[in-house]
Amino acid sequence: MATQNLTLYDEDFTRINAVLGKLCADAKGRAVFLVDKNGQLIAARGDTAHIDTTSLASLTAGNIAATGGLAQLLGEREFSILFHEGEKDNLHISVVSGKVILVVIFDNRSSLGLVRLRVKKASEDLAQIFKDLSARKDREAGQLRAAFHAHLAEITDEDIDNLFKS
Amino acid sequence: MSFINYSAREINCKLVYYGPGLCGKTTNLQFIYQKVDPKTKGKLISLATETERTLFFDFLPLELGTIRGFRTRFHLYTVPGQVFYDASRKLILKGADGVIFVADSQVERMESNLDSMQNLEHNLAEQGLHLDKIPFVMQYNKRDLPNVVPVPDLQSALNQRDVPWFEAVAPQGTGVFETLKAIAKLVLQDLRAKA
Q1: What is the ipTM of this complex?
Q2: Which of A122, B13, B88, B187 is the most interior residue, by most CB within 10 Å?
Q3: Is-above-0.95 flag for pTM?
Q4: H or E segment and range at residue B118
């Protein structure tokens, strides 16, 4: 396989959520999301109750992918920041470590400058988390990892068939 | 590239419907969307032109249920089938855990089926992937039309790998869930094999 599966454990999730929560507060954002480049939502913080987060994740990844395609046409590696301005809400989208996408939704209680400033700091923190994550993956074939994978390996054909019984 | 969140105990997989323009990829998703329990599905998103041709992708998130304590979610995508949208197709194909090839059974679309299959192989190869190595199923759609190619001929032209295949009439739903079930099963088996 050319790509590796992204696997998160409790500790990673807790660290990511802490960074997102802080970013949301510091940037005075409405909500903050972390999405992987394939459009899977990794984590969200803030006022997400009225947002279709799954669709948001998929469309954001599509947006970044399309913009990345444009960048390559122009000989750029990627356009790492996107900003969409609306009448009430604005979207700030950035790529962290070339791996994950950080989305901040904010209204007129904040400003683009403040969001950019706070995103920069949060991106550094997130980059460190993902660096640790891949280092750990390399270092340990890991007990936790092995245990969970053993769990996956236990899935039977019957379990799979049961998913479709309805 | 599946995404497994142990903290939330979720398995998320990406399935891509591939095939030539107007073969019925979007119709597959629309039928699934209509029939599935509202509690288990998200919104069907279609990024389409004014004439309802897929411009970028359709997207439908589905939750199939729990397997050994893991919530199992599939994200269904279609690619735009028209030849000139190749750049978009490549983007959507990235990170796919499984691929469904929807072939248009009509005689006059045979050439387009073959071109699209070749395009799929080419675009996967760019990612270092190969159809022999990833979960893959075939769907022969539009079986209700009068001028269809017999299944054995479709098989020898498009399915030399002998992957699971299904006859379908997507607007009526014939074969739609059978295809989805087959690919979902292959993807989960693949995930298990890699565990």
Answers
A1: 0.72
A2: B13
A3: no
A4: helix B110-126
